[in-house]
Amino acid sequence: MLNKDILKTVARIELSVKGKLDAVMTGAYHSSFKGNGMEFSEVREYVPGDDVRSIDWNVTARTGTPYIKKFVEERELSMLLMIDASSSSEFGSGTQMKGEAMAALTALLAFAATKNNDKVGLLIFTDQVELFIPPAKGRKHVLRLVREILYFKPQHHGTNLQVALDYAGKILTRRSVVVVMSDFLDAGFDSAFKVLRKKHDVLAVAVNDVRETELPPVGLVELEDPETGETLLIDTGDASFREAFMRESRKSAREIAERFARMSVDFVKVMVKDDFQETAAPLIEHFRRRAKARA
């Protein structure tokens, strides 16, 4: 049985992605991805201007009148949402932790996919693959994925993107949309991304908190690396230190974006905000631009 707090949290997330935000995302999502090919729809009489290569010679011979085969794009896709559940996802300086923001973004994407009759699956990883839920359809399935992201208790604390990407490549038997949500505080995953994008449509979503890029002047603060447990005492009252911290964080963010550009992998940076519409805005804008480019 699910307790009331879990149900309330999941219901709140579902409510936050419904309405205008959901409608915009659904439309942009539908226009952004190609299906898995073309499937036969019907035959109709040939009219001048039709491609003669589409003529159905069997029907034409039977009727004595030229007919052509009509094909439509096979729309159904599978989406795999890969969520980083390493200990760094438990960080948050506002009303939401990064993990909760990823759950809401998952709901937004998953509902858009479901409305397009696509299947959605979930892979939760740390430095190991912790959980895999095969792609399926429906609202109940989407809410189950949200619950797992919020309340799943991983066995490990670190991050190993290569392990997760290699696993995804093995289980995905047909072309899929793969969305990887992480802060990408890891190394050595470039080759795994390159291999995956050869067969699948891959999007990397960096989820960050504002306090990972800038610090307020609040005096001495002890920071702890959630993945290693290492602690460090810093003086946030030192303006030169805060400026150096900001420069380094921006440099790191720029290097990550450039890294994905070199890999030819679509990349979106999301900053966790108290207002979910603000959090989701860069992701929705990415799909809008992609849909416009495909039109």
3D architecture notes:
The protein contains nine helices and ten strands. With 295 residues, it is of the alpha/beta class. It has two domains: 4-33 and 75-294, Rossmann fold (3-Layer(aba) Sandwich); 38-73, no CATH class. The strands form three sheets. The chain has a six-stranded mixed sheet, sandwiched between helices. The protein has a two-stranded antiparallel sheet with strand order 1-2. α1 packs across α4 (98-115), α1 (4-17) crosses α5 (139-151) and α2 (20-32) packs across α4 (98-115). The longest helix has 25 residues, at 239-263.
Properties at a glance:
single chain, 295 residues, alpha/beta, 6-stranded mixed β-sheet, 23% strand, elongated
Strand content: 15-25%
Q: Which second-level CATH architecture of the largest domain applies?
A: 3-Layer(aba) Sandwich
Shape: elongated
CATH fold naming of the largest domain:
Rossmann fold
Gist of the model:
With 295 residues, the chain is α/β, with parallel strands linked by helices. It has helices spanning 4-17, 20-32, 57-63, 98-115, 139-151, 161-171, 190-199, 239-263, 276-294; strands spanning 38-45, 67-73, 78-84, 119-125, 129-136, 177-182, 201-208, 220-224, 231-235, 266-271.
